[in-house]
Amino acid sequence: MSFRPLLAALCVTVSLVPSQPLLAADKPMTLQETLRRVLSINPRLTAAERDIGIATGRRIQAGALPNPDISAEVDNVAGSGPYSGTQSAETTLQLGQLVELGGKRAARIAIGSAGIEAAQWQRAALRLELLSEAASTYFTALGAQRRIDVLGVQITGIDRLTPLLQRRVEAGASSPAETARSIVAGDLVKAERERARVTLNGSRRELAALMGLSSPDFGALRGDLARIASPPPFRTILNTLNDNPQLVRWTAVRAQRDAELLAARLKAVPDVRVTAGWKHYRDTGDDAVRLGLSVQLPVFDQNRGGIIEAQEARSKADAEQNAARAALILTLGRAYETMVGAVKELEILRSSAVPNAQRALEAIESGYGQGRYTLLEVLDAQSTLAQASLREVEALVSFHTAVAVLEGLTGVPVIFGQRGRSR
User: Fold this and answer.
1) In whole angstroms, how far apart are CA 361 and each of 158, 366, 383, 386?
2) Rounded-to-integer distance, Cα 83 and Cα 87, Å
3) What is the pLDDT of residues 255-308, one digit of tens each?
4) Cβ neighbours of residue 238 under 8 Å, at least 6 residues apart?
5) How far is residue 89's CA from residue 86's CA, in Å, rounded to a whole number?
6) Residue 418: its pLDDT value, please?
7) Residues 6+ apart with CB under 8 A from 220
8) d(CA 123, CA 240)
């Protein structure tokens, strides 16, 4: 089953929606809404659209035929003797046209067409990159929100101790120094919460920048951070990598390089210049047709250097494609290992660490009022539970970020196995 089929679906649906209404500043924003807004108004995607327009213009220009030329000549004038005037003038009006041979125009058109296809695949790759980046930033912000909540619970627990601690100090059961220790513990957690707020605000600004905004215009983020699932085998994900637009784009690039190599070879094929004109002899009043044909002899320049350049560019494209594929596989493998590791970490935290820390805290807090535990033990139990919960949040963010990276690389949703539980 599909765990989170957002990337592939939004690539289709967003293209049908030219713009998205702005959210109210206090309205929660979901992941789906985030991705829609990013794809609808991101300036980088707009620039990629212009690249397609540029390539289209080059393709149109590549198919243009050479312009004809017209010339006029007057012979036998302003000389001496019978040629001193214009009575012996010979007037020629001539049209000329360069005829390209060997398929040069077709080669130029092929270069332009491949350029359009490469630009289109580059835009598709950028769409996936933006979706992955937006999803990763979204879950980082969502994790920061959850981290603030966890630290808030810890602060509430410490504050709840204050009245009980005060009574113990008044009864002589605790030292006044424990009051200061409790205050310090609470302040340290509050400082950590402020740090989490800085992370949250930074992530919110990153999301706003992806939407082309100078500052966030949305409220809190809303989503199911706690949901996980069993990852599929790595081979299953790897098999979908061939559809990545970054790799498919190289097919168009190779076609473009092939056409450039053909154009370089055809440059040595001489073109024909055809002329046709009308000539008037003034002294006799006769007219005649003038025809001409000229061909450039490829004696000195056969474009050998250009052919070598085009051949090397074609070979370089193959090498760059192999390098790009190796880099994508490496990134894919790292993201997959991060996802698998996060799932294993969450299994430990959820099955043992967090529940046991919760039970220990409840027992120690209950016993503290009866004098069976010290303040230090209570604070340590609260800190242990908070750290376990924060580790869970960190693992969840790692899981969802890795999924976003995988879907951004493959262009298809990751198909998970049995869903894990959501706490």
Assistant:
1) 12, 8, 9, 10
2) 7
3) 999 999 999 999 989 999 999 999 988 888 888 999 999 998 888 889 999 999
4) 329, 332
5) 5
6) 56
7) 28, 29, 145
8) 19
Q: Between the CA of residue 275 and those of 90, 267, 289, 291, 294, what are the distances in Å?
A: 18, 22, 11, 6, 9
Contact 216, 200 (CB under 8 A): no
How far apart, in whole angstroms, are the C-alpha atoms of residue 33 and residue 21?
Answer: 10
Given a contact cutoff of 8 angstroms between Cβ atoms, the answer to whether 384 and 349 are in contact is: no
Task: Find tokens 């998205």 and name the residue.
Answer: 20
Instruction: Classify 43 as helix, strand or coil.
Output: helix
Question: In this structure, what token pair is assigned to residue 235?
Answer: 């081979």
Which amino acid is located at 415 in the chain? I
- Report phi then psi at 143, rounded to 5: -65, -40
CA distances to 141, 210, 335 from 402, rounded to whole Å, are: 15, 19, 5
275: β partners:
96, 292
CA distances from 337 to 163, 213, 265, 334, 402 (A): 48, 34, 48, 5, 9
Phi, psi at 373, each rounded to 5°? -135, 155
Q: 173-183 pLDDT, tens per residue?
A: 666 777 778 88
Q: What would the two tokens of residue 358 be?
A: 């919760």
